[in-house]
TrEMBL record:
Record-level Gene Ontology MF annotations: metal ion binding; methyltransferase activity
SUPFAM superfamilies for the chain: S-adenosyl-L-methionine-dependent methyltransferases (SSF53335)
Pfam families, sorted: Methyltransf_25 (PF13649), Zn_ribbon_RlmA (PF21302)
List of residues binding S-adenosyl-L-methionine: Y68, H187
One record GO biological process: methylation
Annotated keywords: Metal-binding, Methyltransferase, S-adenosyl-L-methionine, Transferase, Zinc
Domain 23S rRNA (guanine(745)-N(1))-methyltransferase N-terminal as annotated: residue spans: 4-43
Binding site for Zn(2+): C6, C9, C22, H26
Protein name, entry field: 23S rRNA (Guanine745-N1)-methyltransferase
Length: 276
């Protein structure tokens, strides 16, 4: 049995070697690279359908070098506070699964044996994610229309991804939690100052969410030193700034052999309010 439901009729999906299928005979092929596409053709599409191959490769290479280890440590500590044996965890916007795979391995190593699955809009990201860990079931889908049963998840992870409170509330059990990671105001400010003449801080993200109670908030504020031009380029390419920056400003980074910048993250935990 799959962790996903049919995006056409909402019935549970079953697995066979080559596809997922429901009792109404809707069928979805499993890609050789390890994911299933559950994004309906009539759903809205963006100009770029999620992160492209260059962004995915840049982010994978950068994260694998451990620069965001302070965030990962705190994230793993937070997930373990709320995870129970056999809990069902959805990573909504899992990307190339660097965080997803680390959470899975950490909880499995503790004997909790989670059922962990993820969705993302980018096929390229999911293909990379499947290479990291074949035990995590992955689907191309929008976080605004999750192919997941009502009240079926204990935890939803939302890591640098859109926070879709209505959908998260639908798929979470009563009392379930969303663990959300957001950039804080000065996150990567040093990177922006190296590129732009007038760098600005990040806008503060709204943290209140209808139907949820904010139960925990942690902040991580550190600095990070990059000593390889390749790492500087990869960091820039994994941000939305890359596609909005002209060649002249990008050239400024290409000339750098080192960079120091702030890394600032917020970890927010929301508990779904119980239905009366």
């Amino acid at each position: 049995m799959s962790n996903f439901i049919c995006p056409v009729c909402g019935k549970k999906l079953n697995n066979n070697t080559h596809c997922l299928y429901c009792e109404n005979r809707h069928s979805f092929d499993l890609a050789k690279s390890g994911y299933v596409n559950l994004l309906l053709s009539q759903q809205p599409k963006e100009k770029r359908h999620g992160d492209d191959r260059r962004m995915v490769r840049a982010r994978s290479d950068f994260l694998d070098r451990g620069y965001y280890a302070p965030l990962l440590r705190k994230l793993l500590e937070t997930v373990k506070k709320y995870a129970l044996p056999g809990c069902r965890i959805l990573d909504a916007g899992c990307g190339e699964c660097w965080y997803t795979s680390n959470v899975f391995e950490d909880l499995t190593g503790c004997g909790l044996k989670p059922e962990l699955f993820g969705v993302d809009i980018s096929k390229e990201a999911l293909a990379a994610g499947a290479k990291r860990n074949r035990a995590i079931e992955l689907a191309v889908a929008s976080v605004f229309r999750l192919p997941v049963e009502d009240a079926s998840c204990d935890i939803v992870l939302s890591i640098f991804a859109p926070f879709t409170g209505e959908e998260f509330g639908r798929v979470l059990k009563d009392g379930g939690v969303v663990i959300r990671v957001i950039p804080l105001e000065k996150h990567l400010l040093g990177l922006k100052e190296a590129v732009y003449d007038h760098a600005v801080e990040n806008k503060e993200e709204p943290i209140n969410a209808e139907g949820f109670e904010l139960t925990e908030r942690q902040e991580i504020r550190e600095s990070m030193v990059l000593r390889r031009s390749e790492d500087i380029r990869n960091l820039f390419m994994m941000t939305p700034y890359y596609y909005k920056t002209g060649a002249e400003d990008q050239e400024k980074l290409a000339r750098l052999s080192g960079l120091e910048t702030e890394i600032e993250f917020g970890i927010l935990v929301y508990r779904k309010k119980r239905q009366v």
